[in-house]
Amino acid sequence: MMISNWPHLYADGLADVDDVAEEIAKRDGAFYEHNRKASVVDNRWKSVPLCSVNSTWNYREDWFKEAGAAKFPDTWDELRKVGAELKKKGHPIGQAFGHSLGDPNQYAYAVTWCFGGAEIDDKGKVIINNKETIEALKFTVAFWKDCLDEGGLAWDDSSNNRAFLASTISATINGASIYFVAKRQFPEIAKAMNHAHMPRGSAGRFYAIGGQGRAVMKYSKNQQAAKEFLRWFMDRPQYDKWMTANDGYVVGPTPYWEKHTLWERDPKLVSFKESSKFGRWPGYPGQPSRKASEALVKYILVDMYAQAITGMKPEDAARWAEGELKKAYA
Predict the structure, then answer these.
(1) Model pTM?
(2) Residue 288: inside a domain
(3) CATH assignment of the domain containing 9
């Protein structure tokens, strides 16, 4: 089991699986870029992309309509405008800024890219301290003050789920798990909620998506059998059943699976399958390298935003992040 860029971390211990991955791509279409980047190391496939567990905006349609939004806002500026009205009505937006691996990083990376910022350029040079990142920081400071639940600094990856299901927040970035629990335990919330895409910024729409894959260990005495299993599992009859069992929680690694019937059965899940088209990876537009992992697990981008919303000037927060990223990417 490989999560996100693990193939880059363990490449020396992984067998090449080029034949299996290329066979799937030929049959089902090219893998999404974030899946390919995570699995290919030095031009060799070190894992076979399996899926991704994408996060989009979970939101209360009823409350957004009350705040004047007939649909979820398409841009960050529009979301801030609607979010301010929601907070005035006692329905703030929820976003974590603590040290949990999922939700805080989902926001920090995506909003940075949406405004045109990035940790590094495509050559690996640290470029975080630029006007685009500073604009993302200024936006987030205002977004925090005007729209967000101020408990978010102490939240972990489960806090926003609980807050949404308790009807104390109106929207949050998350996978489909909130919706699935709502359908089982809080049907009125499930009826009132929907999902929508990450808003656009001046540079476009982006998601931070790691992806998952399956690898074969180089020390294994059964490498060929393992490859045959992966080939069998990823074949359409088996993978179709697996997709159906996951009920929309996972997204297939190629555009072929956008046509799966489960997306037609529940239109509220459509944004999850579409989000893979906008998926990027920690380290983008560079490589999802060991150095990118160090930056991720040290929460450098998350802490940059957390420091800005708690009083540090955006310019100083960007300068601090630049120093920390230079250590990580040294």
Answers:
(1) 0.95
(2) no
(3) 3.40.190.10
